[in-house]
Every structure is written in structure tokens, then in C-alpha cells.
Amino acid sequence: QVQLVESGGGLVQPGGSLRLSCAASTRIFSTYAMGWYRQAPGKQRELVARITSGGSTYYADSVKGRFTISRDNAKRTVYLQMNSLKPEDTTVYYCNTHPSLLSWGQGTQVTVSS
Q: What is the pLDDT of residues 63-81, one digit of tens each?
């Protein structure tokens, strides 16, 4: 079974930065479009950013210009660089393929607070 392991979350002040990582255990990682998602309590999970196997990217309007998604196929890892963080970015972040085909990992908590 393919595993997704997210890391890099934490507590940061508004305006700060974090870099999330997601390691996948599948050998065919490079063929998948990968996405970062987040889910606030009581809300549906939403797509934050997506990167195709060819490197094309998409960002939700709420994070455009602040977040950058990238991938390293040799490491089977996808990253999310988050800059200019806002309190409303506080929630758990998950990665998965896009569309989501794999079992969800544990996610990583991001808290933006002064």
C-alpha cells in the first residue's frame, strides 16, 4: 500500500514561512500529478496547490503569490513552500495525488499565530 508522509508543519508568526514535505512510497511517483490539500475543522478538504508530472502548477486564489509547490521525483517528494503566512492558513495540510487516489496520510499541522 502506498504511503504518504507529510512533515514540516509547526507554529509560525504571521508573515513567517514554512516548508512542507511529502514523501511517497510509490515507484511511479513521477507519473502522478500531486497536490497539497488542507482541511479546516468543519469544512471540506480543499486543494491548495497542484503540480503535474510535467511541472505545470495550479494555486488556489487564497494562496497565489505566497505558496510554491515543487517536486523532486528522484526523492519521490513534493514540497510546499509557504511564505507570508496568515492566521487563516492555520489548519492541517495533506498531500495526495490529484485527483486524490491514494489513502490519506496523517497530515501536518500548520499554526499561524502571534
A: 999 999 999 999 999 999 9
